[in-house]
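Collaborator request, handled under Task 6.
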Amino acid sequence: MPSNFRLLDAARLVVDEVNDLLATSRRRVLCLGQLSEAAESIPSNIREGYGRRAGPERKAFFRHARGSAEETDERLRSNFAAKRVEAARFWRLHNRLTVVIRMLTKLIGE
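Structure tokens returned to the collaborator:
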């Protein structure tokens, strides 16, 4: 169970940092609503998955969480390329999202 908490904690840290980015950015963030919704969806789907019985239904929620993590990373990449997110913040979030994606992939079994 400790790895499950690490996954949820990592996902929540992504949401917290994305929310901080959106609240403090001096430059207008591209796709603001989509970025926020995708990030918020990651831990929500993880929690929903853990609320389900082990098996296909749980894995479906983990797949949704992984898709949201991929979308969050892509939205951040677009903002980084447009110089809307500084390098240190982008790479910290990108690396954390990579870990979340790998953990979810392992739980899904793909």
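The cover message to the collaborator said: "The domain at 2-108 is CATH 1.20.1440.60 (de novo design (two linked rop proteins)). The first helix runs from residue 2 to 24. Please let us know whether this matches your experimental observations."
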